[in-house]
Amino acid sequence: MSNFGFSVLRVVNPYDVAFREARSAVGAAAVLESATEHPDLASAIADCTLVVGTTAVGHRELKHPVRRLEYGARLIRRAAGPVALLFGSEKFGLSNDDLSRCHWLMHIPTRDEHASMNLGQAVALCLYELARDPQAARKAPQAMRPASAAELERLTELLLETARKSGYVNPRTAASTEEKIRRLVRRLNLSERDAAVWFGIFRQIAWKLDHHN
Amino acid sequence: MSNFGFSVLRVVNPYDVAFREARSAVGAAAVLESATEHPDLASAIADCTLVVGTTAVGHRELKHPVRRLEYGARLIRRAAGPVALLFGSEKFGLSNDDLSRCHWLMHIPTRDEHASMNLGQAVALCLYELARDPQAARKAPQAMRPASAAELERLTELLLETARKSGYVNPRTAASTEEKIRRLVRRLNLSERDAAVWFGIFRQIAWKLDHHN
Question: Is the CB of B71 less than 8 angstroms away from the CB of A124?
Fold first, then answer.
């Protein structure tokens, strides 16, 4: 909850000892400290204008619309008032009475062969999907600035010089070797910064080749 | 892993006792049974053509491209060969040596104030994002068939009849009351099936009102 910025935790009829002794993850103490206890579901959701239950579909015939997490999260983000997202116990899930108090249900798209999930993981997935940024899937937010043609050519020239000094270039096939190396460098998809580092490496190698002979 | 259809688990230099005594979640025994142990990271990732490290950005200056999960998962889905997704220990994450063996890094978009995550939850989120269907966010897969205008009007007529029989309709304002109820019914967004159920309920009420008077 704390990872994705959700702070209101309401616990319905918890097993007292476990709840009192529960310890929060590092950095998430505030969530647990401000959690409230409720004798029943109705009082826990009283102020909510949208109530969404979570379910591993398939266990029983559901008489409610069931939405995949991807779509359900979109509807929840658009809701006007406070939204309750209900999770049942790890062992039994939500009861039919709980489900009947929901506007609709949401399920996580697991494999059909393995639909039951760890409670903590299910909560994390739902809150991640709510906090997720669909735009972020479309572009690299920290894309490296790619090297320009001039920077690549500068590196290529140095690389060719180094190759010649090392004896790699056969004079009879020099022209095709040069073209090959030029293409190889373009396929490296170098960033501006990495191109500069490679330039430094080869300049040192070229210098050493000069002072070795 | 099993929830989202991932089956190859490779464990690098595990603490022997913990690994031997590890118990899988219900239904996921196959993943743990087929897990392989490796003395170092290099041997664990030897056959992979793309190696992606996971990190809670911010702990150290990262000298590698870092991609948000939403975008990174897209790149991983497009990869041609086997992909390794690396997770470090819960306490320390991946070492700088581990990170230097990655093609790039991926981070989960948590709040800046609370970036460190539970390992099991982090793994679940990454695999969910990989298995996630972007199309599913755009349309309700199990949308109910909405009631037609004729069905809504049939229900409205019955409701008006019931309202009249109950004495709700003041004859002087009958016309505006009818319009109000007609609009109320349209705003219910009824499905075909639910409209039929409401029709049954009001037919019974109307019958009872007749046999009461």
Answer: no
